Amino acid sequence: MALTIGVDIGGTKVAAGVVDDDGEIVEHMLRPTPAREPDQVAATIAGVVKELAHGREIEAVGLGAAGFVDETRSLVRFAPNLAWREEPLREKVASLVGLPVVVENDANAMAWGEVRYGAGRGESHVVCITLGTGIGGGIVLDGNLYRGRWGMGAELGHMQVVPEGRPCGCDQRGCWEQYASGRALVRDAREIATAHPERAALMLELAGGTVDDIEGEEVTEAARKGDPAALEAFGLLADWLGQGMADMAAVLDPGCFIIGGGVSRAADLFIERARETFVRTLTGGGHRPVADIRLAELGASAGLVGAADLARLR
Amino acid sequence: MALTIGVDIGGTKVAAGVVDDDGEIVEHMLRPTPAREPDQVAATIAGVVKELAHGREIEAVGLGAAGFVDETRSLVRFAPNLAWREEPLREKVASLVGLPVVVENDANAMAWGEVRYGAGRGESHVVCITLGTGIGGGIVLDGNLYRGRWGMGAELGHMQVVPEGRPCGCDQRGCWEQYASGRALVRDAREIATAHPERAALMLELAGGTVDDIEGEEVTEAARKGDPAALEAFGLLADWLGQGMADMAAVLDPGCFIIGGGVSRAADLFIERARETFVRTLTGGGHRPVADIRLAELGASAGLVGAADLARLR
Amino acid sequence: MALTIGVDIGGTKVAAGVVDDDGEIVEHMLRPTPAREPDQVAATIAGVVKELAHGREIEAVGLGAAGFVDETRSLVRFAPNLAWREEPLREKVASLVGLPVVVENDANAMAWGEVRYGAGRGESHVVCITLGTGIGGGIVLDGNLYRGRWGMGAELGHMQVVPEGRPCGCDQRGCWEQYASGRALVRDAREIATAHPERAALMLELAGGTVDDIEGEEVTEAARKGDPAALEAFGLLADWLGQGMADMAAVLDPGCFIIGGGVSRAADLFIERARETFVRTLTGGGHRPVADIRLAELGASAGLVGAADLARLR
Amino acid sequence: MALTIGVDIGGTKVAAGVVDDDGEIVEHMLRPTPAREPDQVAATIAGVVKELAHGREIEAVGLGAAGFVDETRSLVRFAPNLAWREEPLREKVASLVGLPVVVENDANAMAWGEVRYGAGRGESHVVCITLGTGIGGGIVLDGNLYRGRWGMGAELGHMQVVPEGRPCGCDQRGCWEQYASGRALVRDAREIATAHPERAALMLELAGGTVDDIEGEEVTEAARKGDPAALEAFGLLADWLGQGMADMAAVLDPGCFIIGGGVSRAADLFIERARETFVRTLTGGGHRPVADIRLAELGASAGLVGAADLARLR
Description:
Four copies of one chain form a homotetramer. By secondary structure, chain A is of the alpha/beta class. Chain A has two domains: about 5-115 and about 300-310, Nucleotidyltransferase, domain 5 (2-Layer Sandwich); about 120-295, ATPase, nucleotide binding domain (Nucleotidyltransferase, domain 5). In chain A, about 35% of the residues lie in helices and about 20% in strands. The two termini of chain A are about 15 Å apart. Chains C and D meet through strand 10 and helix 7 of C and strand 10 and helix 7 of D. Chains A, B, C, D: GO terms for molecular function: ATP binding; glucokinase activity. Chains A, B, C, D: It is an enzyme of class 2 (transferase). Chains A, B, C, D: This is Glucokinase. Chains A, B, C, D: Its EC number is 2.7.1.2.
């Protein structure tokens, strides 16, 4: 039974696990991400890996990180939440742990985990959409993880959906993640609550009466209890999600979409409407099979499991 | 020297050619597309193929057709300009000509032709954009023609770029091809000429003074002579083209775009500005290599050559 | 019985009439507008007036002209369809005919005619919307014709309703008249017919099969016969008209709207829906009386009758 | 010297003053607005009036209140911030104080105050725009305060400027006050700070590092110190203000705009750009005089002074 280690490097914590070739996590470990100094991060990763590897035969290590990873899966060109710029992460960690290492974009690793062991098992063409603060994307095409010419593919959240729309951290305007993400949900909920406090009574109560204290949790809880404003905010999220999937289907014609990320825990509040919008806005609808829309199954460990599997298949 | 036959089936004519493994057209033939009865079309195709094959050893036949072709490359599910609905084109033609046949979407065949023998030689990740009345798309990823789960991929012209925008023949609104195509160019030019005849003096003169007689040719000629309205129309085309390529780059991260189709003959009037808009609106710009933008090289025979090559590689 | 003469000066013809103080036209006359030389136009007007005045006691003359008329009702600052720039029309005509003259914007004159003798009788606050190629506007407030500080008020068609919208002859973009006018109707009908010829079968048949030959007449006739595309185009017109009236109501709170102009002859095809959209989009709806929406009653002679009456009340 | 009393009834406080016929405030008084029970509010108003009137000869009383006031200036049909629904405010207060009373919308009263004694002295056609949380409007035409057919005119903030735009408390979407008001400024500033914290460093510092704690004060202070995000937010405000004034000019052709309200205290940060946008987007620009844009001069007492003067002129 071949073992590999997967590591998911976030802005605040490093999650790592030993994974077998059934995608099962044999052992799991969590550490805080150290200060943003690149060498310290590499050392922390190496420390976790060595600890997990102790007394086991490990084939390889897969690292998932938020950022642009180059096409050789060695270099992190740019990571918004860590201090990495052209960081040779693969070499650094490999030399510290004495094992083969691959680096992967974290949303790619999650997508791969879901396709191998989760909601996408058996599917050849999958678009994975991670709804968090923004939108993360991962694409599997013809059974392989798709990276693009330079490793920068699948930045789905940065397709423009509204010309001259809301400003985005990527320096453009109108990006999809400004309309169909956790942050967008909160923004829409607050806008509606500001304009129509009477419709948002429940949501405002949950937020202590202050619009600016409405967060995702309040929107979700209020929506579950029938608050009209919260439901309207989820309706907007659903419509933008459905329309964006239709755009993706025009380009990629996937067999299946997988919706993950923190916002997907409230999927009962938007997934049906997202599906309806998707079907209604799909180009060529009626003349083509309609892709499945599924919820992610592996939760927070998808990235770790995916990274470990990518290391095995390196 | 292995020979195959490529056939490009258009709404008004069938173009066919014998192609060698250098992508050279050995012999070429044009026939009018018969009335829309499917069996007649198949018979016409078969007739042309037999005539071209006469006295030669032909390996296989590749057919390119505007429409949704299924993932087995046998069936045309739907063709807007021909009477095909779930048409088993591959079987029909194969049984008539006694040779292996593959069917491919015409824009896909063009893309493949350009990547194998034209502007995309040596590139592994290419997005091919055919600017005609609408937009046709073809995608090559990791060196292979990309078809999608059910053969419906690369319908690039039907990404939505403007919410609730211009109506599209695909039954949706705001599709990219309503903003960056030959038809869009003419529409914009007419709108500007209607609003500001004084800026469109040259273009109107070329159209005999009638806004409704402005066609692509008049816009192009007037723009070349400096007509402000015509130049403004090309500017809009350029901006929408650049923005759409940026969206595609967010998803696919190609190494190269190829711009073909009838409108590309006027590329001198828009390609530089399209490139500038692409660079300016590219997400993550500054942290990534920038894809090349090239003009197609094979002209009208790209589809035929591509189809022939796909038959060889079947 | 006091008589005045009203003259409606159009781009192609001059219509004039002797009007009594019941608003009845006692005698009527039509002349072609001469070449665009200002003095010739003045001479033509004077000729018509003298002919009509012959053998009658005429109090004064009112001239209605498309263009910006200054607040003293003497000067035409700018007329898009005639060669007038800072034209002292009042003096010129007065000295030629030896009668008091007032000059008024033509849409203002029409509005006044309708309020005095047509659909707006008895109303104190009226917004008059003339739907022709563009939109003409006239406003009556507190029983008086409203002109603005410099005579340029009531250019209703040039409120912006779509940011960065369709180009307008006034050099701005997104003006109301680009969405709710005869020209807009035709443009929308053509767009829909281009995208969905199957829905526009009737309309296309009426236009001889050519999208570019669809004009207002074809849209109207096809809509009356149930053509879906033509009905959709009228639906768009209705919605933009209703929304624009709601905007006007927010600013002016009129008691009544009067819809005139050539397009209003097809009012059965859009007026109900326009009213519904107006009511739905009216700010503060439910807490305020809702303005009446009426069709103009005087037809093409409204401008002439209004100008004559304004001369009487000078 | 004739004295009248003006009362400005806000959601939290009642401001009242004795005003002479030069518009000077002879005596001034502030009281908290009592709980929302209508009779209590009337009693509070009456109490203040009696106290001020004590020992003086008072001609009449003018009340300014946020809400829809009917055309007879007697009834408050609807007040969003108080519990008034079809409230006969004029009768109630008149019977309590034994003096003639008129009721006026508060933004109308402010506009009148400014035109009589402030920035609009000598002007006949004025549009007054009060930039607070939302937008309040008052219009003076031909030297008279304009009320509309039913007293609901000049709700300028509720013209739609963006189709399907931001939700508004009036139950519509895309209203002007959602783009050009204090609330809009804060919303835009927060959006930009969320997308680009690095550009909003100063503004975030002033807000203790929390985007949701950015309020108008922080935006203003940061903009004064050159914070790029804060300046961008003011730029958006300026452009929407300028465009809206251009729309108003198309309809009303005023000689002068007066900008007041709390946001106007930061006018140095936006008024020049608003003027430029106004001039650039004005229909018929170049063929017409351009309205003046001035800042309000009377500050918070404009409403009180205007109400008092309207009582005098009743």
